[in-house]
Amino acid sequence: MAPKSITMEYETLRLNSDHLSLRAIGPWLVDLAGRFDLQPDDIELDAVELAVHEVAMNIVDHSVGIGGGEFSITGECDELALRVRTFDAGEAFARSNYSRPKFDEPQVRGYGLFIAEQIADSVRYDRVGDQNQWELVFSFRSVRS
Amino acid sequence: MTAHTATTDSLATIVLRGRLDAVSAVKLRHEIDEKFAAERFDIVVDLAAVEFVDSAGLAALANGMRRARQNAGDLRVVYPASPSARRVFALTRFDQVFVEADATTDLGPEWL
To answer: Does pTM top 0.80 for this prediction?
Structure first.
């Protein structure tokens, strides 16, 4: 991986809050990776898409609501990691209502955020004013090793 | 997602291609419901050609499996050939819950 000496930001992806719109995340990430000159050795883009997709689906289903408006996604890259952030003005995330899946009895729902947490190196939630912000950090493989 | 279904005396098969996400999971649930309505509770969902699976797709499969088992049947899966599409099963440990089916044969040209 070529060292990235400065932080680079990529254009914001704005999505309608519906499930079909989430299909734009993958192509957006591919374009982002191209702009940042990220290589397959740097990061597994399919995994990044799944993690971001799951957080975005939580926004559609539980925060903004289906057809309830828009939300946005930004990408930023430095020499250590890719950072993807989401911004929405929907309902606040109630962490107290979230629990990790119980694997002794397979459940049908509740895996979205868990999947994102398994893939990303960190998943952080903040409520800033009337806005929800999620940040997912994906360290480059060369940094992990 | 495209889907093709076929039914034999012993087994109902649903073959999917493309993305199994929150959009196409609705279609999969409908396909499974139709099998159950026809009292077919042994189902294989062939995901070999599926390129992306999210938690909504997984939920549709898990819900179908649970209902099939409640009716003395099962919903088995042919796992995606794509390692990235298989990932969600390993992350959620559903790869230890679904019974893996053998790859299905060509079921013909008619796709729903």
So the answer is: yes
